[in-house]
Design goal:
The protein is about 10% helix and about 35% strand. About 45% of the residues are buried. With about 400 residues, the protein is mainly β. Mean pLDDT is about 85; it is low at about 35-45. The strands form 5 sheets. The chain has a 6-stranded antiparallel sheet, with no helix packed on it. A 6-stranded mixed barrel has the order 2-3-10-4-9-8. It has a 5-stranded mixed sheet with strand order 14-17-26-18-25.
């Protein structure tokens, strides 16, 4: 089990960054090319809200990396040689590892259509003859926390970012837990009594850190499972069928248009199609009439000013899945507060409708705020994902 936390001063999330970048990060997730001459991603998808420490190479080099469940099927590491502007980030030194091996160009493990540096799976991107960045795909030994059920994994594929390429969150890379066959979720050994991975996301309302567990024992107790679905256009993502929404204290059921919901670590908020969000917003507003409205915060447009109050109430939001399972979102996760550790400030409904259209077959995105407080359990072999309310 590896501890995970936001990367930033004192492990706190940058709230302004969440508001300004949330929709941009989410949009980039749906526009990542699966293959090509670049290393299968865009700079905005190299960042993550949550980070752990891993080891790579022999002897082990410890690095702080983000982790994601929809990162285009590749694990990235900042590697040497690096450009002058990126060497301040701890980087993996390929020359110091005795177990590293380059992936050959043309190998099934090479994600590039065209290699530009000869026989190895690597690329150098130039602009007017000047090298912008390079990337090389290699395999080496991955080492996880000693408390994790799976501690080492040999021949784990990584895309090394070199010569000016860098992550955008000041970490040393991004660990892939997607549905791609090369991801850690699929490479980790499995058994009938284990799941691929599970995590608890750290909340700013709690002093406890979260965790990521690879090859975790199958949880016992109150686990609610939902079948995973597939979308050929989004093969690496975790998709479930979200059937509708309900609010406590009455109101008509809000159906979700045909399509699947993406479970994301790439966005803080939960996104709905315009007609679904409008129905949720209107019902929420009807139950919040007694509180003064506040201006929007970024993309969040249903906001209230609770400053000076000693107590307030808000409806609980129920995410209703097609098998009858519900995820219950109380105030701490259904609303986003200007001062995260002070609900008696400006608070907004943590749902929105993006300004761009969802990809075909997608009707919603379930963000990280909705997942806080629950242990999320990914049983990829059985093609299901579950959650344990109140576990974190």
């Amino acid at each position: 089990m590896s501890q995970c936390s936001p990367l930033g001063p004192a492990g706190k999330r940058n709230r302004l960054s969440s508001l300004q970048n949330d929709e941009r990060r989410l949009h980039s997730l749906f526009t990542v090319p699966v293959t090509g001459n670049r290393p299968g991603s865009t700079p905005s998808t190299w960042e993550s809200e949550y980070h752990i420490v891993i080891g790579y190479g022999t002897p082990v080099q410890n690095l702080t990396v983000g982790f994601n469940i929809g990162s285009g099927g590749q694990t990235f590491l900042q590697c040497k040689p690096c450009g002058d502007s990126t060497c301040n980030i701890p980087a993996f030194d390929q020359s110091q590892s005795s177990s590293i091996a380059p992936v050959p160009c043309g190998s099934p493990d090479c994600p590039l259509r065209n290699c530009t540096t000869g026989s190895t799976c690597s690329v150098i991107v130039k602009d007017k003859g000047v090298v912008q960045y390079g990337a090389a795909v290699v395999t080496d030994t991955l080492t996880l926390s000693p408390s994790t059920p799976i501690t080492t994994l040999e021949n784990f594929r990584v895309t090394c970012l070199e010569m000016g390429a860098t992550t955008t969150d000041s970490s040393s890379g991004l660990l892939d837990l997607s549905r791609d066959k090369h991801s850690l979720a699929y490479r980790a050994p499995s058994a009938p009594d284990t799941v691929a991975f599970s995590y608890c996301l750290p909340s700013e309302l709690s002093v406890d850190q979260g965790f990521l567990s690879i090859g975790a024992p199958r949880p016992e107790g109150n686990v609610s499972y939902i079948a995973l679905r597939s979308n050929t256009a989004l093969p690496n993502m975790y998709l479930v069928r979200l059937a509708g929404l309900d609010l406590s204290n009455g109101g008509p059921h809000i159906p979700i248009p045909a399509g699947d919901a993406v479970i994301a670590l790439h966005s803080t908020f939960t996104y709905l199609k315009p007609e679904t969000y409008a129905a949720l917003r209107d019902q929420f507003k009807a139950q919040m009439e007694r509180y003064p409205a506040a201006p929007p915060m970024g993309i969040l447009d249903t906001c209230y000013n609770f400053t000076g109050l000693r107590s307030f109430g808000a409806p609980t939001v129920y995410l209703k899945f097609d098998n009858g399972v519900s995820m219950v979102l109380g105030i701490p996760v259904a609303m986003y507060f200007q001062e995260r550790d002070n609900p008696f400030s400006v608070g907004c409904l943590a749902f929105a409708s993006p300004v761009w259209s969802f990809p075909p077959g997608v009707s919603a995105v379930i963000g990280t705020l909705a997942q806080e407080g629950a242990e999320m359990v990914y049983d990829v072999r059985a093609e299901k994902v579950g959650f344990i309310p109140g576990r974190c």
